[in-house]
Amino acid sequence: MESRVLSRASTFASFSQLRKPPRENNNNNNSVSFVSARPIGAVGEGGNLIWGRQLRPALLLESSSAGKQRETVKPCLAAASSSPGSDSAGEAKPVGFIEKYPALVTGFFFFMWYFLNVIFNILNKKIYNYFPYPYFVSVVHLFVGVVYCLVSWAVGLPKRAPMDSNLLKLLFPVAVCHALGHVTSNVSFAAVAVSFTHTIKALEPFFNAAASQFILGQSIPLNLWLSLAPVVLGVSMASLTELSFNWVGFISAMISNISFTYRSIYSKKAMTDMDSTNLYAYISIIALFVCIPPAIILEGPKLMKHGFGDAITKVGLTKFITDLFWVGMFYHLYNQLATNTLERVAPLTHAVGNVLKRVFVIGFSIIVFGNKISTQTGIGTVIAIAGVAIYSYIKAKMEEEKRQAKAA
């Protein structure tokens, strides 16, 4: 509320400065500096999202309104610049490709997000076929991503955001949940078919709704609960006849759902103005340190005794190292690109995009690995995905209505 008041106050102040005589304008450039300034938390700066989730809706709404204000101010500035003594009168700024074709750019973002996600899942499962150590592979995923972030910070793309003890306390629970969800997802990927793991993970909206209702105390409408019934039914049908079913894979995927649900809860509490790229980098660093101890304790002795040796014997040292490097790179890039992509679209597009992503991953994994699935498993998977689509559509519409109400 305070930021909204300050923003409006600065807007009125800028308009009043624009109305001053030319003599005063030449001595005071506050109006020009206002136009070039960006509101805190603007989507163009990365926004305030974690994995596509909005942290500070008020600030993002203020960003859109500030954008409209800037459009109103620009003509005034053009008139001011055409006054005597202005060297750039009448010059129009060239329109870049991103501004000229925003739909094409957003479509490219979606394509790369899906492409990297599918490649990651396929390569990840291939590694587990000859190197079944998910705790160690999870550490590799995060380690490669952290190295990538450090190099990016070193060259200033992006510029590293400062970190303090208070921000660390806010991000630590988010990172712990991220680490736990990531590791248990990989345990499930190593134990069962990729398509089955993603079918189980379709239950994540159910856990999110339950947490919102019973932990956060938010009222969930009846139609939203009813839309989750096909998801539960479909996952149950698929689990009963899944040929690769085992309890380790099933329970690990369920723990992953719960972990990512709590990650969402803590993300809402970790309200920060830091852009999403820096935010995800810090979360990855913290999660890496969380994942290292269990990997050493649970898999360290096996890896030193025969794990590394067996993998090198099967595929060779060069392929083993390059596989681990690329799977880590694809993991970080698809997560980062997913965050950047979801910042560019509306909640409804975001919801549809997430559902289609899961369909792509399930479909391509079945084609690549030739997994045999029963008829009931196939029907159950389709029902579950359809339920997720209905749930996502209803929830996105509700969020859009709330946003419009606040804007009004």
TrEMBL record:
The keyword Lyase does not apply. It is a multi-pass membrane protein. InterPro entries: EmrE-like, Sugar_P_trans_dom, Tpt_PEP_transl, TPT_transporter. The chain crosses the membrane at residues 103-123, 135-155, 167-183, 247-266, 278-297, 317-334, 355-371, 377-394. It comes from the Eukaryota. Residues 105-392 form the Sugar phosphate transporter domain. This is Sugar phosphate transporter domain-containing protein. It comes from Quercus rubra.
